[in-house]
Amino acid sequence: xxxxxxxxxxxxxxxxxxxxxxxxxxxxxxxxxxxxxxxxxxxxxxxxxxxxxxxxxxxxxxxxxxxxxxxxxxxxxxxxxxxxxxxxxxxxxxxxxxxxxxxxxxxxxxxxxxxxxxxxxxxxxxxxxxxxxxxxxxxxxxxxxxxxxxxxxxxxxxxxxxxxxxxxxxxxxxxxxxxxxxxxxxxxxxxxxxxxxxxxxxxxx
Length: 205
Ligand code: ADP
Ligand code: MG
Ligand code: MG
Prior knowledge:
Distance between the termini: 12 Å
Number of domains: 1
CATH superfamily: DhaL domain
CATH class: Mainly Alpha
Strand content: under 5%
Number of helices: 9
Radius of gyration: 16 Å
Order of helices and strands: HHHHHHHHH
Largest sheet: none
CATH topology: Serine Threonine Protein Phosphatase 5, Tetratricopeptide repeat
Number of strands: 0
Helix content: 55-70%
Bound molecules: adenosine-5'-diphosphate, magnesium ion
């Protein structure tokens, strides 16, 4: 199917939540080495709440916006710096069209969402944050030539993965990792890794 349906969006978020649950120790370990060690818990508990919200509301699968809004609500009730940032990201997606999303809709929604996160957190590409994965993924979505949402998101996933990998070797300029400077240089940013997992999760929908 060319467009992203509400049901597919719901399935995408379910796969993402499973991926994070399976990798929560990895995220905890990264944040322990470059921060305070709570990122795995923060994102894992937010996604558990999101899932409960998706299961409770039998209208969540009607359109992608409603799915993303439910996920946003869960992140906004979560701790850490990542809670409000992911809450804003998913919240802007949740303001997208209340119908199946074309590739153009996807690019517009992620463009708005990523720009909002960049502004709130003040992070640019190269500062070793989730933005290092969000920006290239969003660029892939807005400039891609794919006809179907699956191909477009698969391209975004490759870009997000490359962006997340690029954080290994960066000296952090934002967030707690910036307090560690060179000592956390070789650690991947857990927020960027989670964003790569998010886009990669769509491949298993
Ligand atoms: P905290 O540092 O409050 O414990 P979390 O552990 O919940 O925050 O989240 C850490 C993640 O948040 C980092 O891996 C990074 O991706 C992201 N992050 C931190 N500060 C910023 C920022 N200013 N802009 C964008 N992302 C940020
Ligand atoms: Mg932390
Ligand atoms: Mg913390």
